[in-house]
Specification:
The chain is mainly β. The chain has 4 helices and 16 strands.
Length: about 220
Amino acid sequence: MKISIYLSFVLLFMGIIACEQPIVFSEPQPERIPPSLSFHLPFRGTFFCEEDTSVVHVHNNCIFKEKVWQFDLLQENLDSLQDLQLINGQLFSDFYDSFLDTKILPNGSYRGTLVVRDTFFQIGKKEVLKYFRGYQVLNKYNRSGDWEIWLLGLDEYLNLTLHKTVLPEDLNKIKEITPLEDISTSEKKQYRMKPTIIEFSDLLNSRLIFEACGYYERIELEKSL
């Protein structure tokens, strides 16, 4: 039960950032562009991800995904679970150490509402935001001491597009723009680069290393204070 209900949702939300990207950077990108203290207002709001039916929230200084899931439990099933218990008429999750919104149905079963949230990006020392040529550039410091980046863009309807780095078939095309350092191991194939701002702009134009990995339809635009 714990794996099927809880772990599956954790894995679902962590899918985007579970593995290191094949191209990393030695410093936040692009160089010489000062970090932003907040997301630009047009990028903020609430969005729907059709792929996993989650809701994406972009606030002043963070991005997080949220999934609401309902489940019904008979009393006999509840008694056999170790990670859920009933306290004063409310389901309590030991896994999340919190109460779930609970309703008692006419047949005596319990309907619980589980809200799973996962923070994708939070502006700070190890998560640096920059704005460049219409994109919010999300720089995340990884365990290897390098920076991975995502590009957050807007389409003509103010919906969000998310791009990650990928390896093209022909690496020589990248090397024509900026040097590549091979840091591959027996477990992964990976390259590091340190482009100038002009080289980063050329990489952006060429689309050699960027690939769309998410599309989020706007539900609500965040209002300025």
